[in-house]
Amino acid sequence: MTMQGNISANIDLGQSATRAAQLRPRLNNQQTQNQNETERTETTTSSTTGVSWQGDSLAVDNADHATLSTLAVTSSQPTSRTGPVLTCIEAYGRSFLASRSANFMESALQSATAGALQTLLTNVFGLSPEVISSIQTGLTAERQAGIRSGMEEWARTAVMADLGLA
Amino acid sequence: MSRRNNKKKGQAKILNEIKTQLMMQADKWGMEGEYSPLKLEELKLEQCRKIKGDFLAERANLEYEMSVLGTDKKEILIKTEKLDTYIRKTEKQIQAYEKKITKILDKQLGDKNATKNAVSKIVTQPRISVMIDR
Predict the structure, then answer these.
(1) Are strands A43-45 and A51-54 parallel, antiparallel or unpaired?
(2) Residues of chain B contacting A51 with CB distance shorter than 8 Å
(3) Beta-carbon separation of B13 and A151 below 8 A
(4) Which residues 6+ apart lie within 8 Å of A89 measured at CB?
(5) Contact by Cβ (8 Å): B88, B48
(6) Helix (H, G, I), strand (E, B) or coil at A51
(7) Does residue A136 or residue B5 have the better pLDDT?
(8) Contact (Cβ atoms closer than 8 angstroms) between residue A7 and residue A154
(9) Is pLDDT at A7 greater than 90 in this prediction?
(10) What 3-state class would DSSP assign to A137?
(11) Of B24, B36, B81, B108, which is most buried with the most CB atoms under 10 A?
(12) pTM value?
């Protein structure tokens, strides 16, 4: 699912996430049941419309709840490590993102880390405040786009539930 | 029956939880007030229309398959019938969302007549002047 990558780091590991994680096992059982049922029936998907059929019954390509709920407990991992500056920028980015956490302690700690890393980047590596600001803008825009697409997925799933298709 | 209700309740609970988390994140990332109840209903309406579009496209696809490719007609007819049911359901749902949006808007406007009067006082009426040459 494409959305997972976008929102994975969006969601806080606060109280609500813990509750969502608690809901997971129940869903996983449900999912396994659904999977077993799917295996029994032949699934055909229309390549043009994205609507898939399980035998004669309809199964529309939508974000299932289990996948959505897992978004609450996954977190992104750093990818590239090509040098100390990049590593420092990556660490700064992670701290900057985590500083908006719903958990107060986490937020305070990550804000302090981000501040320290910002000082390091400007004083030791010579990055200008404009560069730091552009990193912040980029990260914020990325996160906002993730939230928007997440909301769209949520709305689609809610509609599917209203239609009795979820 | 109760099992279905429980499933629905569970789904609603999870969806509500996800919505709460997303809205909390939206607030934290400078999108305060972007997701009002009205906006959420609009999002649902938009998605419902998209789903209806998908269903209509699938029906057209099935009709094409039946007329041109000559696949099993009985199976396709069953599928088309089911799709029609869902299209009707989607149309009803669209109407329900539209009704809900109108209700929210009406609530925001307050007294309709008072608003109309206020608007008529603020907005200047266009006047047409005619020059007659003698």
Answers:
(1) antiparallel
(2) 54-55, 57-58
(3) no
(4) A121, A135
(5) no
(6) strand
(7) A136
(8) no
(9) no
(10) helix
(11) B24
(12) 0.64
